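Tokens in:
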């Protein structure tokens, strides 16, 4: 390998909008399509892939602003690229959409480095575990009882996943009776031995969330995600102190200080980190270190197949969200996706990088 062959030559960015398998919704939002922004980072004969789930404006930000900032850098110098990208978006605001764009590139650069070296990405990062535990995630508020039961039984039956999550907070927290009915339906579908998680996506007030938890006490909820807005740290802390389930939040974090503030406020029992939003693999490990300094574990939010190698290398890691919407798209677009049967996935030891091969022809019909 020559120095020139290791120079980043281009970032090919493309966006794909995929209709959902059925209308999807949670306590505060509803959607029927999901958009993936894919980055292919090239150096010499090698290509690394990364992505984020974001509006198509993210693709323009990558092409117009971030690509010029890192083109020509040595592909091995991922921290230098991360710093260059962070500086470049200063006036565009590092938190938010720029964080999503940086994440897609950063993941692609780590994948590229591993492929150049001929190493599985989790070996390059250094593994802390052989398997990554997952939980089935979906249970949208738009689902009928039959749809909810079918999805839950698919996870806990054939796939034998021992933990599952549903959405609650119907109509921005204004339909508590349906929330409680759906929690009971979920418990009935999965039986007494599966861990049941709920996610309100910030739909409740703090006292509402406590009342819902108390009213559903017989259903043994183990995890209450975003019972109030993730920006309402006092509210999260109030709920955390008032209920026995673990309170979780953090999925919207796009800079390190966001995670530090959440931990410092005593707002969560487990910090959620999304590798496709937080700043990529580089920032994932920094966020995990912040959580560790507060005695907390982290949980991977969405983009499951992108997250597996980093999750495998994180000591204070709990589990990974096996999110229906993203799993479906990643299975459609990539060869080599993870198998969650038994409740965990194993990073691929037989392929370099993240182990994925992009099926461009299969994705093309969804390209924007």
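Residues out:
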């Amino acid at each position: 390998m020559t120095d020139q062959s290791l120079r980043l030559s281009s970032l090919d960015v493309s966006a794909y909008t995929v209709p959902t398998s059925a209308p999807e919704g949670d306590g505060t939002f509803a959607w029927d399509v999901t958009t993936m922004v894919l980055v292919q980072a090239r150096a010499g004969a090698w290509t690394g892939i990364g992505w984020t789930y974001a509006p198509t404006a993210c693709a323009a930000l990558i092409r117009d602003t971030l690509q010029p900032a890192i083109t020509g850098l040595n592909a091995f110098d991922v921290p230098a690229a991360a710093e260059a990208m962070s500086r470049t978006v200063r006036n565009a605001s590092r938190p938010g959409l720029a964080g999503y764009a940086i994440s897609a590139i950063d993941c692609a650069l780590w994948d590229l480095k591993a492929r150049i070296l001929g190493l599985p990405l989790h070996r390059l990062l250094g593994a802390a575990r052989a398997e990554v535990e997952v939980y089935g995630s979906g249970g949208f508020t738009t689902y009928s009882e039959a749809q909810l039961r079918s999805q839950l039984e698919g996870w806990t039956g054939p796939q034998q996943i021992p933990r599952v999550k549903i959405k609650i907070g119907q109509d921005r927290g204004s339909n508590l009776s349906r929330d409680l009915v759906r929690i009971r339906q979920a418990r009935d579908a999965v039986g007494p031995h599966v861990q049941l998680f709920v996610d309100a996506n910030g739909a409740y007030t703090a006292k509402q969330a406590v009342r819902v938890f108390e009213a559903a006490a017989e259903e043994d909820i183990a995890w209450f995600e975003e019972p109030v807005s993730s920006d309402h740290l006092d509210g999260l802390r109030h709920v955390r102190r008032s209920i026995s389930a673990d309170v979780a939040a953090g999925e919207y974090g796009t800079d390190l200080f966001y995670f530090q503030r959440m931990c410092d406020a005593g707002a969560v029992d487990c910090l959620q980190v999304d590798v496709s939003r937080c700043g990529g693999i580089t920032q994932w490990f920094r966020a995990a270190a912040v959580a560790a300094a507060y005695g907390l574990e982290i949980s991977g939010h969405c983009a499951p197949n992108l997250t597996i190698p980093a999750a495998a290398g994180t000591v204070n890691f709990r589990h990974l969200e096996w999110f229906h919407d993203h799993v479906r798209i990643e299975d459609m677009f990539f060869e080599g996706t993870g198998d969650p049967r038994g409740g965990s996935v194993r990073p691929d030891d037989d392929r370099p990088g993240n182990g994925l091969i992009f099926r461009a022809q299969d994705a093309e019909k969804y390209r924007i």
